[in-house]
Amino acid sequence: MRMLRKSFKLKIILPIVAIFVVLVVVINVFLWFRFTAMNSDLTNQKLVANANSLSLFLETSQANSVVAAVSTALYPDTVNALIQRDRAELLHIFTMAQELYGVNFFTVTDSEGVILIRTHEPDNYGDSIASLQSIHDALNGRVSSYFEEGTAVKVSVRTGAPVYDPEGLLIGVISAGVRFDSDSMARELKELLNADVSVFLGNKRIASTIHIDSRLITGTTMDPHIEEIVIGSGLEYSGEIEVQGERYIGYFKPLTDANGEVFAAFATGTALEDLIAQSNNSIRDGILLGLAGLTVSIVLLSIIITIISKPVADLSQNMTNIADGNLSTIIEVKSEDEIGILGKSLKRIADTLHKLLAEIKTMISEHEKGNIDHHLNADEFSGDYKVLAGDILALATVSTIDPLTGIPNRRSFDNRLDLEWKRAKRDKAPLSILMMDLDRFKLYNDTFGHQQGDLALQTVAASITHLLKRSTDFAARWGGEEFVVLLPVTDKRNASYVAERLRAGIEKTKIPCIDDRANCLTVSIGVYTQIPKQNSMLKNFISGADSALYEAKSAGRNTVKVAK
After folding, report:
1. Dihedral sign, CA of 494, 495, 496, 502?
2. Do 427 and 481 lie in a common domain?
3. Which domain-ending residue is among 364, 381, 400?
4. What pTM did the predictor assign?
5. Which residues span the domain enclosing 237?
6. What span, in angstroms and rounded, lies between the C-alpha atoms of 276 and 478?
7. DSSP conformation class of 405
8. What is the C-alpha to C-alpha distance for residues 183 and 219, in angstroms, rounded to an integer?
9. Res. 4: pLDDT tops 50
10. Which residue among 35, 140, 405, 466 has the highest number of C-beta atoms inside a 10 angstrom radius?
11. Which sign does the torsion angle of CA 316, 319, 321, 326 carry?
């Protein structure tokens, strides 16, 4: 008993001493660090963060422009509209594509570089931009991306991509880009960088977020010394600058065109007054943090003393609760004596069982919603718990995955469809379904055998999974040689794009077939899109896709039919 009393006393005294020692050391080190290094570190960190964020923004913008130009140049609708010189259709296609690809303008020219449409200035067309390097390259059959000065858009990154007709003749150029010469883009960058932004064309500021006397300072020029470094030498600049009498810590980044010449620049900056205010706020936060730490320490000490005073009673009650099946019992015994060791062992048992049951419930709930990617992680358990978790996982997998193709089965699809149907009805959003059937698959099986037929089904399933781009798209084996794809928040036009991509992709797998009407295995696809209403019936949604698939089969197979 004497040793036990001594142990309890140490448990009270040692935490008090340790907590207050740590608290004193932390407060002193914190205040010393803040007062001696705050201004310098804050400035350097801000400049580095702005430089990195700006570079990443420019790289992302350029990447988006490349993807946008190349992708839209391959659209069948783009080719058809260019052949017919249908300006209204071109404007419709590319206005919708801007948000999809993360660009803010498209320019479409004919095969001579004469503009057919500008999405940013629909009424401005008919002039030639063949002199722009990205357009010149595209007219010569090359995809290229540059930071350029244009006629309507002064500073931007743009990518030119050639468009060819079905005979392989150049019929036009798609130019996709992100413009930087507007005050709205400057405001967007300000939100990203948490700093004021200016865009220069040459040495002239053409867009800005800096206000002097409530007016933007566009039209002003760059400091001559900075101009010599940034525009003249093409080098980055960072340091203290003065803008209309206000002192800033700023960073300048030059933009070079296709010839490697600097034609524009970005500038970001934070007013010194703001940095000083941030420094003062940090010191204030440090003091508040110290007071909070002291308060927390007092609370923790009270909890520790309360726990130590009645460990046996608490542990006994905990054991009774667990024995009665209440696995959510909170066990707070944390001492290192015999009682503490027993309490921790009991807590481990309860936590393991509680975690296993919670993981199983979550997995079952997610599978019922159609989210079959959610599994419990058997490696998080050990011993017999791990074996049990592995057996449960294997059983869940068998019930949700098609064993032949490795993609979700019909049951998983039904669950996901029910979830997406309710979500589309709630959000009044379009929901599309693609019903797919391998053409003349019975002939394929009869010719090559069922083993080769199984391999073909696996190849098709892998192709479908690879060709779907969004994580929300859901593919499953419907049964036999039929597959089904669910496309949430997808209208009829985009659903037909996806269907055509799947049809062409499966055809490109070149699965051999001796059918005299096709030299490889193909697929027919029926597309149906609906915005579910309160009185809409799910079975009509499925039958709509079936009807479209029947039309595709009747039309000669290896085709896509969209239900009207």
Report:
1. positive
2. yes
3. 400
4. 0.46
5. 62-278
6. 64
7. T
8. 12
9. no
10. 405
11. positive
